[in-house]
Amino acid sequence: MRWGMRNGIFHVAKEEDSDKVLGVAMWLRPQPADQPPTWNDWIESWKLYFGQVRMNLWYGRGGLNVKRYYIWKDAQDSAQSALWKDPRGYFFLNIMVVVPEAQGKGVGAKLMKAVTDEADAKDMRCYLESSRDVPNFAIYGRLGFKFQKEMICDDDGDAIKLFTMIREPNAEPCSGR
């Protein structure tokens, strides 16, 4: 959606001599904890909201359970409130996707390094939420991320776990645990 293009940091990996996309990473920039939302932030959040409503009306929800979205956002707010101690904010890996045939070939690492290098230069932390512990702890651990806590999203007994990870500036590779 256009909101991401205006507000995120995107990196796209393409196959050499081709336009085939191998992977995409989208990060959110650090937001200082004590900084109130700007008018631009407020306008952007409403643009995102109305854009999502328009897409749902036009294309249907496609099975989207809105209640679960809010369960996830509440769990995310709770986890970030507990973990985010740097008042300058964190670089937040919002999404990382690498096509299966390119996995294990360093594509994801290169997509990550573009932002982790910037975070290191600014002496800032990075944060992500992983949908799996195995194999993702090892993958993200090689980039210096360490597991922090489980994030439980429970919809009346139907629960999933997400795994929060933080990378300190200039972190060394580790197991991710």
From TrEMBL:
Coiled coil: none annotated. InterPro entries: Acyl_CoA_acyltransferase, GNAT_dom, Trichothecene_AcTrans. SUPFAM superfamilies: Acyl-CoA N-acyltransferases (Nat) (SSF55729). Pfam families: Acetyltransf_7 (PF13508). Gene3D superfamilies: 3.40.630.30. This is Uncharacterized protein. It comes from Fusarium xylarioides. One of its GO terms (molecular function) is acyltransferase activity, transferring groups other than amino-acyl groups.
